Amino acid sequence: MTATTQDMLAAGDRLARRNAFILSLATALAGANTTVMFATGAIVGAGLAPSRSLATLPISIFVVGLAAASLPVGMLIHRFGRRAAYQIATSAGVLTGLFGYLGVTLASFPIFCLATFCAGFYASAAQSYRFAAADTASDAFRPKAISWVMTGGIIAGVVGPQLVVWTKDAMPPVLFAGTFIGQAVVAILAGVILSFIDIPKPKPVAAAARRPVSRFFRDRAFLTAVVCGAATYMLMNFVMTAAPLAMIGCGHGVDDAAYGIQWHVIAMYGPSFFTGGLISRFGAPRIVAAGLALTALAAVAGLAGLTVAHFYLALVLLGLGWNFGYIGASAMVAATAQPEERTQVQSINDFCVFGVMAVGSFSSGQILTNYGWDMVNWVVFPIVLVAAVSLAFGTLRRVPSTAH
């Protein structure tokens, strides 16, 4: 490698580090917005829904927002660039707080569900921050850039639940009214921070040069990454959505549930300080396998007992499993795309992941209400098995044929 090439890579990674730092802060604030919704959604839903079986519907609609926004966010990025697209998306975060406030003060279940849809739209844009950091990174730094951005979730894991605890009674007699106003303020701050990222607008690609979508799904590496990412994210959301409501049902308090989500979110993002390094050393497929194993252990912990400690252990293991599984799968997706295809590939991946996640989220409340917390955990094992088999077959090396 020439000195000129080394200088170019160093300069590129200096920009990637700067962008990764800014995007980690934005992740922290967007993640706090999401964490508030995770901590309050099922509880508020139980109070506003016409039927207890619909208590988790707001979280399911959040996931619908995630899936519905994935392709439009990709189009906004392609048309206006990442900075403008992300700032547009933060307006959905502001609407989340405002509609959430109206929902609880007017005791309107539909308005509160609209708030969670907006939260999903905002979170969908935030999910692509990890890919944004990779845009200006060298191949060697790309897994670390993704990992750095994800560390912002550690702050989210503290800020979000604390926002709930500090503000839930700030505007009596309506529980959580002050929390949702705080949510809107946090989203405005995120929009300001995002104005400092410096990522070139994607170059237009001639239609003839683009691979059709069907080609991506014939790529074994891409398909494996999508299956593993979808399974990991769906199971995390499936169990996490039910956990606060299950804790309340077992006689634990709202603060216990909020702190359970706090430890869960910290576990989701805490390992990000070194996940990128582990991927570089051991390869993404092994890290994904470790994530699937941790997710299965979370279900074991959930089945072991109903104390606060059991719930916390299950949520922490679930968060760790998500970190390894999802970041590993994201690195696999990033490696399958050509530079001019990244926005398209990322949007397709996120649409598939969040679409599968929506199916799991809609069933979470029904399974919890009709069959209990134990069944929520039993569902984890077959899905982990399917993802593990996909990973094993998807990463087998093809043996070249020998001419006779």
From TrEMBL:
The keyword Nucleus does not apply. Pfam families: MFS_1. Gene3D superfamilies: MFS general substrate transporter like domains. Keywords: Membrane, Transmembrane, Transmembrane helix. The chain crosses the membrane at residues 21-49, 55-77, 84-102, 108-125, 145-164, 176-200, 221-249, 261-280, 287-306, 312-336, 348-369, 375-396. PROSITE patterns: MFS (PS50850). It comes from the Bacteria. Residues 184-404 form the Major facilitator superfamily (MFS) profile domain. GO terms for molecular function: transmembrane transporter activity. The keyword Membrane applies. PANTHER family: MAJOR FACILITATOR SUPERFAMILY PROTEIN, MFS PERMEASE. This is MFS transporter. It comes from Phreatobacter stygius.
